[in-house]
Amino acid sequence: MLENKIRTRFAPSPTGYMHVGNFRTALYAYLFAKRNGGDFLLRIEDTDKKRYVPDALEKLIKIINWAGLDYVEGVYMDGDGKFFQKGDYGPYIQSERLEIYGKCAQQLVESGTAYYCFCDEETLEKKRQEQTANKQAPMYDRTCLKLAPEEIQEKIAKGEKYVIRQKINTAGITKYKDLIRGEIEFKNELLDDQILMKSDGYPTYNFANVVDDHLMGISHILRGEEFISSTPKYIQLYQNFGWNAPEFAHLPLLLNPDKTKLSKRQGDVAVEDYIKNGYLKEAIINFVVLLGWNMGEGSTQEIFSLRELEQVFDLKRVHKAGAVFDLKRLDWINAQYIKKLSADELYGKSLEFLAQKDFYLNAPENMKTEEYLKKVLTVEQERLVKLSEVGENNKFFFTDIEYGKDMLRWKDMSDEALKESLEKSIAVLSGIGADGWETKNIEEKLFAAAGDKKGDLLWPLRVALSGAQKSPSPMELAWVLGKQESLNRLRGAIDRI
RNA sequence: GCCGCCAUCGUCUAGCCCGGUCAGGACGCCAGGUUUUCAUCCUGGAAAUCAGGGGUUCGAAUCCCCUUGGCGGUACCA
């Protein structure tokens, strides 16, 4: 019944954090399924015991949930952090499917397309080195393929360690049509007899992947470019089982600025890091989806919501070449999304970042109220690039200000004129009632009083209120600080003269 | 080494399939304007001999061939 249904999966290994490249793979797989009315599932590939990291699974699921990449089957986590599985084709955790892989491998052995191998890793490594030294491609030499059935039984009975290898059909070529790259073909004689089952009884990725994708009815496999060259072996595996191979789409790589594969050494690679640095979910998704995909057809749209992408995403428009991860562009997209936030949203999202800052923690209580904070954020919103920078450039909204008298001076004002200017500001602000205390009105009153010499009035006012040369406009400063605090700071300025 | 993938402004990319606009947009950068400053915003600009070389053609980023470069794979990792 799954015959013609489009089904994609995200199949990460719980080895640490969510790499942005993996995240993009998940995003594309999700979007492709959504766009085509298919299913998206989450499977966990924990077949490497050595690389297993305890809380990696939790992180993975949290990020997928956070991003809103809803899946219909797979591994989930409830409110208490406990895992559970849902779906008719489970289990969805490979370490719980060992029996299945064992049977499948046995089936292949019996049909003659897989065989037992007793060579130990040391011997294998030595042979590889010899082959490399002789400029030959390092490949398994099929020593164990020559073993007689009795010998095999004997070794197994003696308890010798063994793996099961795929017996490659070395004649001819294997080709497949990649949805992104078109036809790709390989000479079969170059394919290695890869290991299917490891000596610890676990399957390799190469094997578990094929078995599970088939058993779970996966129709389209979206994965990184690094799997292109192992795909012909998978195809042979499908053939050996008598299964129809799914469609393949190999995604381009994400690159460092120097065009090498995106790596931790050259910056953050975990989605978690970007969240921590104040990037919004919508911005991360928007940025990442554009790394290798575009609307085309003359569209110049740059900003896309997840919902929109679900409608327009098309594998045909995925680029072939790798894409450099350009932080500047992410910053710009993030700023776009911050500008679109409502006052409540911005407030809600900013709190956790403010809570990490000393200037905020040490601020007086009246500067931590929701009402006050929302005013600060209203002023900050248009210039904020990352949430993590909230308040950074406007600390004067939270702290006592320190500045030298000369900073107050606009051009070459005399002390007399300075004092007069500040007093004029006091007079203007004093005359504005609580109901008129808003930026626009404050501005009108100030401009009226300033006449054509705005600088003489506004510059000293700016510095008196902020103690800084770079700040929002004096009227915005006054609006945020409130009448009382503004007047206090102005009087403090006069005292300095 | 062998195998494979890829190649348009600094970056993300449109155009390539179905040859013929000054190779278009965005980020970044520069300049001007608005804002008393900075940022925002607006306007303008510089920026790709379409990796290089050969063909085919009246005409090629677009079609063909070769070369080069980058990257990936070559594990009892995924």
Describe the protein.
The protein has 497 residues and is α/β, with parallel strands linked by helices. 44% of the residues lie in helices and 11% in strands. The strands form 5 sheets. Strands 1-2-3-4 form a 4-stranded mixed beta sheet. Strands 5-6-9 form a 3-stranded antiparallel beta sheet. Strand 3 (73-77) and strand 4 (83-86) form a beta hairpin. The protein is elongated. The structure holds one RNA strand of 78 nucleotides.
Helix run count: 19
Strand order of the largest sheet: 1-2-3-4
Main sheet specs: 4 strands, mixed
- The radius of gyration is 32 Å
User: What's the multimeric state?
Assistant: single chain
Number of strands: 13
Q: Determine the structural class based on helices, strands and strand pairing.
A: alpha/beta
Percentage beta strand:
5-15%
**Rounded average pLDDT:** 92
Question: What shape does the CA trace take?
Answer: elongated
* Terminus-to-terminus distance: 85 Å
**Helix content bin:** 40-55%
Low-confidence stretches: none
Q: In a nutshell, what does this entry contain?
A:
By secondary structure, this protein is of the alpha/beta class. Helices cover 44% and strands 11% of the residues.
